Automatic annotation (TrEMBL):
<keyword id="KW-0347">Helicase</keyword>
<dbReference type="GO" id="GO:0006282">
    <property type="term" value="P:regulation of DNA repair"/>
</dbReference>
<dbReference type="GO" id="GO:0005975">
    <property type="term" value="P:carbohydrate metabolic process"/>
</dbReference>
<dbReference type="GO" id="GO:0009225">
    <property type="term" value="P:nucleotide-sugar metabolic process"/>
</dbReference>
<feature type="domain" description="PARG catalytic Macro">
    <location>
        <begin position="221"/>
        <end position="310"/>
    </location>
</feature>
<dbReference type="GO" id="GO:0005737">
    <property type="term" value="C:cytoplasm"/>
</dbReference>
<keyword id="KW-0547">Nucleotide-binding</keyword>
<dbReference type="GO" id="GO:0004649">
    <property type="term" value="F:poly(ADP-ribose) glycohydrolase activity"/>
</dbReference>
<dbReference type="InterPro" id="IPR046372">
    <property type="entry name" value="PARG_cat_C"/>
</dbReference>
<dbReference type="InterPro" id="IPR007724">
    <property type="entry name" value="Poly_GlycHdrlase"/>
</dbReference>
<keyword id="KW-0378">Hydrolase</keyword>
<dbReference type="GO" id="GO:0004386">
    <property type="term" value="F:helicase activity"/>
</dbReference>
<protein>
    <submittedName>
        <fullName>Putative helicase</fullName>
    </submittedName>
</protein>
<keyword id="KW-0067">ATP-binding</keyword>
<dbReference type="Pfam" id="PF05028">
    <property type="entry name" value="PARG_cat_C"/>
</dbReference>
<dbReference type="GO" id="GO:1990966">
    <property type="term" value="P:ATP generation from poly-ADP-D-ribose"/>
</dbReference>
């Protein structure tokens, strides 16, 4: 597809939004009774712990000397906070797109994750391996490990879950189905400039460069983290229907789970912060992975989804959203099976893992 200009994108977005808004006379709304019913069906484990107690009883276990350097800085002045940990089962995806009111707003941001907003209604994605936070103490340093390093209490959350005998275990997949994990009110104690130490470069970096890349946060803010496994290829060159359906189910289960466990007022918009889910080490297709997240957010009732584009152009997000409405016909009232049919027919190719 030829790239659209900014004016063309704006005009086409307005026309399609107008069309979409008029094609469904009934919109969904969330209220406490509706949420409580869904919560009782889908939350399979829950705990609330203090940060001080968690760090005392389940301290991080660091095997790599360079990671120890990072964690020593991150834990130097760790505040106390009450943290909740939840695990959900797979939440059935709707058969048709009945939108929430207002429709999900899709935004793009330059660069990488920012956590400047500490409000309870904001959520930041963790592109998890199925064994949650398993690389935090090793040499790896991609999105998952960076997020844990900036929120070091997440390492203790993993150790707590490993020590338990119930279903609050550190697994984002069980019996082949997604089991999203949400950790709320986690202090972020450092920010890391990853430009020179991201991925495999971390293990080759000197201690001084690592120290210079870390900025302690004087007044740590609290983050809400949603962990779902990024889609992994089953060995096909082109995405299969089952791969697309699994990715859509995983994203929807996680996004809806965050809303179900939210205890604030629904007058506040639920804002999801995300990026190129599974497009690095797993070689996912960027357009498909972004499109699936937009679909899942719209189905789940997310008020706003913000994509951090890294080095990629921000205009591509609006273009992908427009293609969802025009080419793939993702509009209020549409049967989801029809949208999946069109995604499958487009033969999205798997990419090449980036080695990180």
């Amino acid at each position: 597809m030829q790239s659209l200009g900014n004016k063309e994108v704006t005009l086409l977005r307005s026309l399609l939004n107008l069309f979409g808004a008029s094609s469904s006379s009934v919109s969904l709304t969330d209220d406490r009774k509706r949420i409580d019913r869904e919560l009782s069906r889908h939350r399979i484990a829950f705990d609330r712990v203090s940060a001080a107690e968690l760090l005392r009883t389940h301290p991080p276990k660091i095997e790599n000397a360079k990671k120890r350097l990072v964690f020593d800085i991150a834990l130097a002045n760790h505040p106390n906070a009450e943290v909740t940990v939840e695990r959900f089962n797979e939440i059935p995806i709707p058969e048709a797109f009945q939108p929430y009111s207002p429709l999900t707003a899709v935004k793009a941001s330059k660069g990488y994750f920012r956590y400047s907003v500490g409000d309870a209604h904001h959520c930041h994605m963790n592109f998890a391996y199925h064994d949650l936070f398993s690389g935090y103490g090793h040499f790896m340093f991609a999105q998952d490990e960076i997020q844990v390093a900036e929120h070091p209490l997440l390492a203790s959350v993993r150790e707590l879950m490993l020590a338990r005998a119930d279903r609050l275990r550190p697994s984002t997949v069980e019996d082949g189905a997604p089991t999203p994990i949400i950790i709320r009110s986690v202090p972020r104690t450092i920010s890391i400039d990853t430009r020179q130490i991201y991925g495999a470069r971390f293990a080759r970096s000197g201690d001084r460069l690592i120290r210079d890349s870390i900025n302690p946060i004087d007044s740590p803010q609290l983050s809400n983290i949603l962990a779902i496994e990024a889609p992994i290829s089953t060995g096909n060159r082109i995405y299969t229907r089952s791969e697309i359906e699994k990715a859509l189910s995983t994203a929807f289960s996680g996004f809806r789970a965050f809303i179900l466990g939210y205890t604030g007022s629904f007058t506040n918009p639920i804002v999801l912060h995300t990026s190129n889910w599974g497009c690095g080490a797993y070689g996912g297709n960027r357009q498909l992975m972004i499109s699936i997240q937009i679909i899942a957010a719209s189905l789940a009732g997310i008020s706003e989804i913000v994509f951090y584009c890294g080095a990629d152009p921000t205009d591509s997000i609006a273009e992908y959203e427009l293609q969802l409405k025009s080419r793939f016909k993702f509009r209020p009232g549409v049967k989801l099976a029809k949208v999946v049919d069109r995604l499958v027919a487009s033969a999205f190719p798997w990419g090449t893992p980036d080695g990180n």
